[in-house]
Each structure stands twice: as structure tokens, then as C-alpha cells.
Amino acid sequence: MQTLNRSLQAAILELLRRRHPAICRAWFSDLIVEDAQGGEITVVAADAAQLTYLLEYCRRPLVEAAQAATGRLVSVRFVLPDGSEPSAGDGEEDDDRPSFEKYDSIFCLHGDYTFDQFVVGLCNRMAHASCMAVSESPGTVYNPLFIYGSVGLGKTHLLHAIWHKVLDRSPAARVMYLSSETFMNHFIEAMEKGALDSFRFRYRHVDVLMIDDVQFLSSCERTQDEFFHTFNTLYQAHKQIVLSGDRPPSEIVGLEDRLVSRFNSGLVLRIDPPCMETRLAILRKKCRARQMEIPEDVAMYLATRLKSNARELEGALNRLHSMSTLDSRIIDMNLARECLGQDASQVRRQIRIQDIMGIVTDKFDVKLSDLQGRRRSRSIALPRQVCMYLARQFTSHSLEEIGGFFGGRDHTTVLHANRLVSERRNTDPTFQARLEDIEASLRQG
Q: Are residues 290 and 242 in the same domain?
């Protein structure tokens, strides 16, 4: 057995960082990758904690990266420096109990959503500090932690940051992040398949459980009952629970009183829209990350006009960059005014869902009847989700109205589509470029 040449090892790790940034850790650069006979690659971890992390989070992503880098079918084995492999039970569950899957968390996490990348201001200082405290000492302070506020204010960013921080400090920790919709879907699937034992093991054997958009639990009584027992099991075991929503627990219509009581028993914090100073700080950080320079008067103009949330500011920067690049124009006040002139109500009046569907059918080479039909194949589902995402961005239609355009789907389907497209846009550069091309076509009419 011999160590892989450095360029190939670097290629594997770079592919891993590009495809799965959320699972990558600083110590990955110290890993030793050895090439064994028979199409097997051995990864040498420095200690047992690293080995546990690699086994639980990285086996499948590393296999994919190694196969892409080497151009051949390979398997991956993890060992310690003395060559010993994990004993039975390390990183894998016993055969007689359900497995613990973490991929739902890994593949919906944003690699840049860390505490270092979060812009702290008066609007979110308490929420940021409490999430930091939770990540440093899970289960001992602020349990449960409930953060609420409108869209685009940083709730999801903070939950992702907890995930990263906990695993940086304790690689073997079991951390689960998901949306309430995913929890509901898994529960329904488990009931249909008679696999509730596996479902309960999956969610009740974690060190940290984080549920985003918890207000959607209110739509299903049986899911609320299941989550109530999951909550109690984790709380009694001193495991950390972090929840986010768009309103405080007491204002979530349809949420059972016993869950409201549980959620209120910990720390409940609100995130407010960013103040002027925070909006400017967000713009500057986003510009540095993109290596993009904008004049101070343009930054002031954007921060003054766009007051709702960070997502709105980032969207304006995306458009400003796109207009500057496509038209070979410098970024100045004239371009900024043009950018915001196309934003908000003016664009919403001009662009119709029919316009969106027309461009998407052309770009994805699908039929209009497919977008509005019931087929769920991947080739149809993605363009349909893109249409729903763009309809939320460019029109004033409600979630129910958008769903109605696409075969009478309900509002939860539209929200799910929006989340999937947003996550893929943040992690897949090719898809991001394709989406920006569609957006540019919409603006140009």
C-alpha cells in the first residue's frame, strides 16, 4: 500500500469541498489517503474522534469524490494510524436496530452559514449569542431554544451555524437539522411502511435536533403527537432542541397547547429586520465574499431602499452584478437605480406566471402540460420547482395561487420547491448560472 500522489489526493479533497462544503473540516488537509490493491482507497484518520466523524458523515461523499478524481470504481476504507479499523458499533449501528441516517442534514446545509459569516446587529444580537452558547454547551443552556422572525432574517443561517460549530468541537456528535416538512414526510412514510421503530430511533437518538419552520407542524395532528413524544424523549435525556418559526409559539394557529407549553419552557427570541448599520454591514460582507466592489453611495442607496431582510439585499446584489457583467457596465448610481427600478412592484406587475412557464419550458425542453400535470419524474419535477420558485420571486401571487397554476398543488408543495431551489442555487454553481440566465430573460421580456 502506498500514499496517493499529492495532486490526486488534493483533487479528491477539492471535489469533496466543492460538492459537500457543509461536511468539510479544517483537519481534512491532514488526512492521509493511501491507494490499496483491488480498487480500494484507505483514509487514515488521526484519532478516534476523526474516525467516527468520517464513518458517520463522509463515506458516501468520499467514494463519489474518489471515483470522480480517479476515473475508476473504488471503495473507501477508514483506519487509524496503527492500521486498526473501527470495532463493531463504531460509526455503524448493530444489525438488530435501525440505522442512523444523517444525509438529510448534510445535503441541505449551506457551507457558508457559519457564525463567522453571520452579521451581528442590534436586531439579532441576542439570537446570535444564544445560538453560540447552545453550540458550545448543547443541552445545558437555553433548552429548548426557539427563534422566530420573518423570512430572510437569518434563522436558518443560525441553525446551520450551530450544526457546524457543534461538529467542529465534537466530531462524533449526532446532530440533525431538517425542516418540519421533512419531519412530517418521514413520519408519514414510516407509518405507510410500518417502520415507526426506525423513524423513532432516527430522531430520538441524537445529541442535537434542529427543526426549521416549525409552524408547519400545526397542519397535522398526528405529526404533532409524534413530535411531542420525540421532544419529551430528547429533553429528558438532556439533548439540545433548537426550533425556528415565523411567529412565537403562542401565535401558531393549530399548534397544540402542550407543544406551545414545551416550546415556551426554554428561551424564545425574536429576530427583527436589520437596522441601517446592519444592512450596510451585510452588503459589505456579501461584496467581499464575491470579490465585488460597489461605491459607497451605491451601498447607501441599496441599504436605504431595501429594509426588509438580508435576502432582499443579496438579491439586489445578484441583479446588480448580473446587469454589470452582461451589459459590460460599471456599477454606479445609474445602474443601481435601474436595478431597483426593475425590482419590487414594477417587476411584479410586468411578469406573469405564464411568462415564467414559457421561458422555463424552453430552457428545460419540457412541455407546458408536463409542468401542470401530475408526473413527478426528476426531469419534470425540477423545472416545475424552478417555476414555483420564480413565481414567488417575481409575482405577487399567494402560495395557494401559485400551486393552482401547477396542477392544483397546495402551499406546502410550493414552499418545498422554493427551499429546494434556494439550497441548490447556493451549492451548485452550474445550476445557479442556469437560474440567473432564466431571470435575465424574464427581466428583458
A: no
